[in-house]
C-alpha cells in the first residue's frame, strides 16, 4: 500500500494551538458541537479552515503543503478508498469519531489534494427541536405512502430534518425502514422499527441498483440520500406511487424551483408523464435554510412548506407549478390539506420573535418584496 500516515501524527504547526494532527483538528467538532462548527476544509495553498455558524474561519498558521495534505487526509481513508481516490480522483466516505459521524469528500483540484469534512452528531435531535413553523411534521410522520422532499443548499440541515422525522416514526410504530446513502450520515438506533442503512459504494453499487433491490426487500419506508439523475428520480417516484413512504433530497432553494428541477432531468417527451407521476406521488416539499441567530449563538431553521393538496397536484399535472406560491401564502390554517408556509412568512415570524435580525432575514428571503409584505402583516 502507498503512503499511509498515522492519524495522531502532529503534522500541522498552528500559531496559537501548537502542532496538530488530523484527530486534533476533528476533536474541535466535538468540543464546540456540530451545530456550531459544521465543516473542516483542508486545501493545498491555504490554512485549514472551519465553517463556524456558516462563516469560514481559517486557522492561524502556514498554508498546507502537498505533503501535509496527504499526512492529514490519508489517515481518514481505508485502503479501498485510498485506491479509489488514486484511480478516480475523488471519493466520498464516512468516519466515526467519538460522538460524531463525519461525512468526507476528498478530491483532486488544481493545487493538489483537497478535503471537505462535514460533522454530524450521532444524537439525532427531536423533531420538535428542528424548528418547524407549524405542526406539519405530525402529519408527515403519520403518512403511509408518498414522496417527502427536503431541499436546500449544501449544509442547510436537510439530513438532520429527515433523520429527526425517521427517528420519530421509528419510535411510534413498527415499520421496515431501508436507507440508501452516499455516505451514511446519521446512525439510526433500532427502536420499534427495523432499520437497515446501505452505503453506496460499500453495500450497494449505485442508488439505482439499491432501489431495484429494495423493492424486493419489503420496505415500508425508504430514504434515498439524493435524487441525482433521471433514473434514480423515476424509480423514487415509482416507489412513492406503489405504496411506500419515501424521503429524499434535492439541492434547490424553493418549492417551485424543486418541481422545475425534477422535470428538467427528463427530455421534453417524458415531462408530461413525470408531471402526472409527481402530482400523484408527491406528499410534501420542505425547502429549508439555516439562518444566523440574532444573538450570535448559532443558526436557526427557516422553512418553506408545500402540502400537495388537490389544487397543487393539479398545477403540477398541468405544468403551472409557478402558480403554487399563492397556495403557500393562503393555505396556512391548521388543517390536513393546508399547513403551508412561504420562506418569507417564516423569516418574518423569526424576525418578529426576535430570533433573527431584520436585515439578515431579508438577505435570506427568496423574494424581498414578499418578505416586506409578510413583515407588514400581523
Layout of helices and strands:
Elements (H helix, E strand, L loop, with lengths): L11 E3 L3 E3 L1 H11 L4 E7 L5 E4 L2 E4 L7 H8 L5 H10 L1 E8 L2 E10 L2 E10 L14 H6 L4 E6 L6 H15 L3 E6 L12 E6 L7 H8 L6 E4 L5 H12 L3 E6 L4 H10 L3 H14 E11 L6 E9 L2 H8 L7 H6 L12 H10 L5 H7 L3 H9 L2
In short:
The protein has 378 residues and is α/β, with parallel strands linked by helices. 35% of the residues lie in helices and 26% in strands.
Write down the secondary-structure element order. Answer: EEHEEEHHEEEHEHEEHEHEHHEEHHHHH
Count of spatially separate domains: 2
Structural class: alpha/beta
Number of helices: 14
Low-confidence runs:
none
State Rg.
22 Å
Q: List how many beta strands DSSP finds.
A: 15
Average pLDDT: 92
CATH class of the largest domain, anyone? Alpha Beta
> Any idea what the CATH superfamily of the largest domain is called?
P-loop containing nucleotide triphosphate hydrolases
Q: What name is given to the CATH topology of the largest domain?
A: Rossmann fold
The CATH architecture of the largest domain can be named as 3-Layer(aba) Sandwich
Strand content: 25-35%
Strand order of the largest sheet: 11-10-12-13-9-14-15
Question: What does the model show?
Answer:
It contains 14 helices and 15 strands. With 378 residues, it is α/β, with parallel strands linked by helices. The protein folds into two domains: 12-121, 2-Layer Sandwich (Beta-Lactamase); 127-376, Rossmann fold, CATH 3.40.50.300. Strand 7 (100-109) and strand 8 form a beta hairpin. The mean pLDDT is 92.
Amino acid at each position: 500500500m502507498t503512503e499511509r500516515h498515522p492519524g495522531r501524527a502532529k503534522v500541522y504547526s498552528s500559531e496559537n494551538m501548537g502542532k496538530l494532527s488530523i484527530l486534533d483538528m476533528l476533536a474541535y467538532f466535538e468540543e464546540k458541537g456540530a451545530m456550531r462548527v459544521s465543516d473542516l476544509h483542508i486545501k493545498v495553498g491555504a490554512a485549514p479552515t472551519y465553517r463556524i455558524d456558516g462563516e469560514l474561519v481559517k486557522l492561524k498558521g502556514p498554508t498546507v503543503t502537498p505533503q501535509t495534505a496527504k499526512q492529514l487526509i490519508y489517515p481518514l481513508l481505508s485502503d479501498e478508498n485510498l485506491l479509489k481516490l488514486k484511480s478516480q480522483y475523488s471519493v466520498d466516505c464516512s468516519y466515526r469519531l467519538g460522538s460524531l459521524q463525519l461525512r468526507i469528500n476528498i478530491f483532486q483540484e488544481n493545487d493538489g489534494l483537497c478535503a471537505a469534512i462535514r460533522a454530524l452528531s450521532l444524537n439525532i435531535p427531536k423533531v420538535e427541536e428542528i424548528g418547524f413553523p407549524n405542526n406539519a411534521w405530525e402529519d408527515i410522520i403519520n403518512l403511509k405512502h408518498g414522496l417527502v422532499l427536503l431541499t436546500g443548499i449544501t449544509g442547510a440541515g436537510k439530513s438532520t430534518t429527515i433523520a429527526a422525522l425517521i427517528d420519530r416514526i421509528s419510535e411510534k410504530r413498527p415499520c421496515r425502514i431501508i436507507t440508501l446513502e452516499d455516505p451514511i450520515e446519521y446512525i439510526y438506533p433500532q427502536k420499534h422499527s427495523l432499520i437497515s442503512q446501505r452505503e453506496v459504494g460499500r453495500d450497494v453499487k449505485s442508488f439505482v441498483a439499491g432501489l431495484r433491490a429494495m423493492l424486493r426487500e419489503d420496505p415500508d419506508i425508504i430514504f434515498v440520500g439524493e435524487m441525482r439523475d433521471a433514473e434514480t428520480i423515476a424509480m423514487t417516484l415509482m416507489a412513492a406511487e406503489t405504496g411506500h413512504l419515501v424521503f429524499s433530497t434535492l439541492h434547490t432553494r424553493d418549492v417551485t424551483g424543486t418541481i422545475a428541477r425534477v422535470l428538467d432531468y427528463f427530455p421534453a417527451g417524458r415531462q408530461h408523464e413525470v408531471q402526472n407521476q409527481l402530482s400523484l406521488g408527491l406528499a410534501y416539499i420542505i425547502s429549508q435554510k439555516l439562518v444566523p441567530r440574532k444573538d450570535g449563538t448559532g443558526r436557526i431553521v427557516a422553512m418553506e412548506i408545500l402540502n400537495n393538496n388537490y389544487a397543487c397536484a393539479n398545477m403540477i399535472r398541468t405544468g403551472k407549478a409557478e402558480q403554487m406560491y399563492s397556495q403557500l401564502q393562503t393555505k396556512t390554517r391548521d388543517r390536513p390539506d393546508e399547513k403551508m408556509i412561504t420562506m418569507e412568512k417564516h423569516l418574518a415570524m423569526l424576525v418578529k420573535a426576535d430570533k433573527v435580525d431584520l436585515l439578515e432575514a431579508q438577505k435570506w428571503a427568496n423574494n424581498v418584496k414578499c418578505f416586506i409584505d409578510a413583515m407588514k402583516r400581523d
